[in-house]
Write a structure and sequence with these properties.
By secondary structure, the chain is an all-beta fold. The protein has no helices and four strands. A four-stranded antiparallel beta sheet has the order 1-2-3-4, with no helix packed on it. Strand 3 and strand 4 form a beta hairpin.
Length: 76
């Protein structure tokens, strides 16, 4: 938390998956950053960015992805 109204989060992860009964293995790296601003007690506005890099022993499953989102969270 930077203040009562402003928070941020950073998530870094790496996973290795082995598929049972298959020669397939996947390595996935993920980096995600999010900033939330509390406009009202019941209304948050956020901006987030996520980068994912997946490498598989089966090339068809390889990908890189960038996702940028702007959104709102409403609560009661």
């Amino acid at each position: 938390s930077w203040s009562d109204n402003l928070t941020s989060s950073l998530v870094i992860s790496a996973t290795e998956d082995e598929m049972v009964g298959s020669a397939r293995t996947d390595d996935t790296e993920n980096l995600s950053f999010r900033v939330d601003y509390g406009v009202k007690r019941w209304l948050d506005v956020y901006v987030s960015a996520t980068y994912t890099d997946k490498e598989s022993s089966f090339a068809i499953f390889n990908f890189q992805e960038n996702v940028i989102a702007i959104g709102i969270d409403l609560s009661l």
